[in-house]
Amino acid sequence: MDNFRGIILNTSYPKIGRTSDIEILGKSMLDWVKIALSGSFIAAVDYGGETPVPLAVRPFLDLSDQYTVVLYSDTPLISKRSVVDAVAALEENGQNVLKMTRGYVFRTAFLMSVDKIYTEQTFYLEEEDFITAFNYKQIQLITDVLKSRIIAFHMENGVYFEDSQSAFIGSDVKIGKNVRIAPGNTVLGNTVIGDGVTLKCGNVIENCVIDDGATVDSSRLYSSFIGKRTKVGPFAYIRPDSVIGDDCRIGDFVEIKKSIIGNGSKISHLTYVGDCEMGSGCNVGCGVVFCNYDGKNKHKTLVGNNVFIGSNCNLIAPIKVGDGAFIAAGSTLTDGVPPDALAVARARQTVKPEWQGNKFRKQDK
Q1: Residue 173, CA distances (Å) to 23, 115, 160, 206, 229 in order
Q2: 3-class secondary-structure state, position 244
Q3: pLDDT tens for residues 88-120?
Q4: Percent of the chain whose pLDDT exceeds 90
Q5: Judging by DSSP bridges, how do beta strands 289-291 and 174-175 pair with one another?
Q6: Fewer CB within 10 Å of terminal CB in the chain, N or C?
Q7: From CA 360, how far away is CA 313, in angstroms rounded?
Q8: Which residues are known to be catalytic?
Q9: CA-to-CA distance for 110 and 197, rounded, in angstroms?
């Protein structure tokens, strides 16, 4: 129906303040109510209850609208179906005003001519839609209902939640088919999850794209892209503006910051990669640090394709490592490495077996 438009009354309560400012699952209460009006929203009006509703909304009316729906910002569960049903009931019964549990439908011409509402009869719809947020206990109840609605929507579209009670899925999250979500996952913002993705226990994912077939385990991901069939975690930290290619491995206690990781590269454990562009097919050992900060400025590291970086290396940016290079474990690099070269940057080992400074040997004597 396109014969109505809606106005939302912003309400306030002593214990929680303006309800329109309170966010639930990624949207303000006002935004949730706007959804029920779809493209028919006119304006939001601060409303304390002292002014009769017709006088409060009259400055915003348009006589070209046959009906005007008045809702409240403290009922974020209101659905478009309830609004459409209420307008249809008013039309069918030839009424001038229909009072819902919380809100009204008016004939606009009638609303222009009256100062008070004289109906006592209430038209009951889906009463869950009218749970009112007047304190934080009510807000928690509303949150649980919205959370259940969102999860039910995704279940109907082919998403399997191992424990739906422990999942926290934002209102704007998009999830593909055949996705498996384990307990304790929080997925927020404009995250897009592709088909066949597995989210193991304990992830926090916000504003990310997780491509088809990827697996994320007990990790934190923010504003980044994860490629097809890539495995992340456990306990990885993907910071904003990172792009991880297809078939990669980002392992436990790996932190990626503002970096591009090429297809098939593996960074398996205990490594920091900051401000790096890495090619495909690379292998980064344990305990490697991409040293991107000199105390004043951030610098980039460029790593080619099929590069091997041994454990416990430090790459001090700015630096470029060519395709096929091999960096020996324990090296600290300050200069670039040409393609297919071996780089060893560590002191030669010296052993002094009769060293008298060995306190442990002295104790044994």
Answers
A1: 16, 43, 15, 9, 20
A2: strand
A3: 999 998 899 999 999 999 999 999 889 888 877
A4: 86
A5: unpaired
A6: C
A7: 30
A8: 269
A9: 54
